[in-house]
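Much of the work behind modern protein science is quiet bookkeeping, done one molecule at a time. The protein below has been through that process, and both of its lines are reproduced in full.
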Amino acid sequence: MRHVPSTWSAETAGMKRLVTMMAALVLAGAVSAEPVQITRDMPQATVQTPDGPAVIGRIQDNDNRISGDWALTSRACPPFCVQPMTPVPGVTTIGELELIAMLQDPEAVVVDSRVAADHATGTIPGAISIPYNEAADRLDALGCEIDFDGFDCEGAIPVALFCNGPWCGQSPTAARRMVEAGYPAERIFYYRGGMQVWRMLGLTVSGG
């Protein structure tokens, strides 16, 4: 019978222990990963989109981080300046939970006010695209009726606007132009966090 050196046996035993410890750590990490819900009582939310129901949830990787352009903190101002909390008197500023509620409300609409190129990089599920520079001309998509003087907005529906983040002026500009064109300010809601905060919270992004 061939004799195996004791040093080789010790190294093999040590390697086995190391592999066992690593496997245990991996397993412990998988077991101890904390679930990521939207709120304590809302693990996810289903919203209707033109392509059918979509589920909004949060990325389950506890170590996930935003990267690329969404991680930038210091964009040049102007033009990328911090926006006021209320872009127009009468407009209501909302957060993510209120936005999700509006996405689930069949009587409301959520509008991505960014230019088409930005919208194409990914958007909030259920949002429709109306670029800020077209907003005042497309109020008929939001419950207004075209008349000889522009728009009759007596039937205007609740609408939430968002763009790239608290430094983005596209949705505030859309809100101002909409009000100037006759849209009731009290039926406009402003999601100031925009795509940067939405992504920072690990919420579902469609397209892009």
